[in-house]
Each structure stands twice: as C-alpha cells, then as structure tokens.
Amino acid sequence: MRTIAMTMGDAAGVGPEIIAGAWKHLCQIPDCRCVVYGHPEMMRRAAALRGESSEIRCVPCCSDDVAEVPAGQIDARAGLAAYQCIVRAIADAKNGKADAVVTAPIHKAALNLAGFHYPGHTEIFAEQCGVNDFAMMLYLGAGENIQGEFGLAVVHVTLHTAMKTVFDQITAESVSAKIVLADRFMRTMIGGKRPPRIGVCSLNPHAGENGLFGDEEIRIIRPAVRHAVENGILAEGPKPADTIMIDAKNGQYDAVVAMFHDQGHIALKLLGMHRAVNITLGLPIIRTSVAHGTAFDKAWQGTALTGSFIEAVNTAVKLAAVKR
Hints:
alpha/beta; Isopropylmalate Dehydrogenase; 11 helices
C-alpha cells in the first residue's frame, strides 16, 4: 500500500474542495492510501461543500486560526498554514512515512506575507531536499490531443522569474541540465522500450533567424543540444517555439525543453489544462501537483474541477510504483 501525502494548499483557494471533490475517486485507486496534510476543520467544511460523506483522513499541520481565513482573499495565515503543511509532508516523504507528495495550489503572495519568500512550491521542495539541480515539468498523459504513446512532458529552463532576467539565466549549462532531466524522466515513463525523443525550444522568434533576431540559439542552445547528443540523448533543436509543440502533440517528441515559464505553460495547458500534472524533477522524493492556481474567483463555491488533482495522484502512484 502506497501512502500519498496530499497538502491542503492555500485555505482561501480551491485546494481543500478539489481534494474533497476528488476523494471518492481517490479512494478507489488500487494500492493507494491518501492522507491530507492540512487542517481537519477546513477539510470537514470542504467535504460538506462537495457532498462527501466519507471521513477524509487528515494530519493536522497548522494552527486553528487558518479556519478564520475568508474565501478568495490573500491572507498571511493561509500562507503560513500552506508552508507548514508542505514542510511536514516533505519530511514524512523523506523519512519514508509517505511514498509521494501531491500538492494543492498555494498563493505566492500569501506565502510571502507569511514571511516565506519563495517563488513557489518547486523552490521549497528543492531547499527542503537539499538539491540544486531541479526543474519544474508539466506532463500530459497519452490521450486526447496527445498522440505520443507515452504522453508529453515540458521542462522549463527558467521558471518563476521576471522576463527581464530570463536571458541572464539561460546558459549552455542550464539548458543541458534540463535536457538531461527531461530525458531521465521520460526514460522512466517509457520503461526501456526505446530512448525518449527530446525537442528543445528556441528563445528568440523563428529560432533567431540565423542570428538576425538574436544569437542565443547559436551561442547557447545549439551547443547544449550538441552536448546532449554526444552523451547519447536523442535531442533536437533549437526549434521555433511556435511550431515545436505541434510536432510534439503529434508524437514527434516525448518531451520539450522550454526556455521560460509561459513558453511551456501556455502551449501545454491549451492541449489539456485539466489533465495536466506538475512534477518536480531532480528530487530524492516524488512530488506532483495540479497544473492550475488557487482560483480565488472560484474558491469555496463547490464548482472547482478535480481532474488535474486526480491525474496528479494517479501519476504519483505510478511513479512510486516505479521507484519501489
């Protein structure tokens, strides 16, 4: 039996209710025991909102004042509670009490108001696990809009950062590292049947048009791809970002390395936002998440969609089985 630690997320957002709304389905996943890391009262409210009569297993991780947080508003109390739940779940995954962590969405502003100055989940997990070589990946399993047999992954070279800093952060080393992480993950998903095919995005329009629109493709990305190929990875690029995802969804690539957040996120979410799963690569533990935010405009109305959370748990269970 695999134990999946599910963090409640921001109490003012849709996290508690998507967990409650998905609970009946989650209880039917074979060899899986789901446990919420959060506040029992918030989960009771969410269960009542979604008409869930079963008791939701909950590990108390935060103080009672989180129950006073108003729905749909940025609140330091929610930020503190979210952080406490995340850290506790990570600790239990590291010491073997949990086989994977699945996170509901947090609000970065609430997190910062509480005094925790992280761009998001990914950086918290990296720090708590003591790793420097990590990446955020979005993953869509095979199915609607994805013709590849093993689904499609998008790994980001830069992530939660201002656009003006992106060019400084993209180096041959950082691109190479993300190609390796993408290849390593897809080898796990493919299971040795064949090497994964990795497509690498350009940074500039039309892949720089041979230096006319910028030379980062020539100086940085192309050498990184060449280095990957020399080390046995089936990588191609840099490819124009406005066409590479069309090839990828048609099965030409198993994973795409995007240069910045929106370059990867927008394309993959258009293909299947409510099936997409967020996975942190490079950790010693398994962490998956939904591919959407706290949705304050929809929070605590009983209408939040549960598909991405269910896929995140299913993916975590699959990865835990491979790891074991």
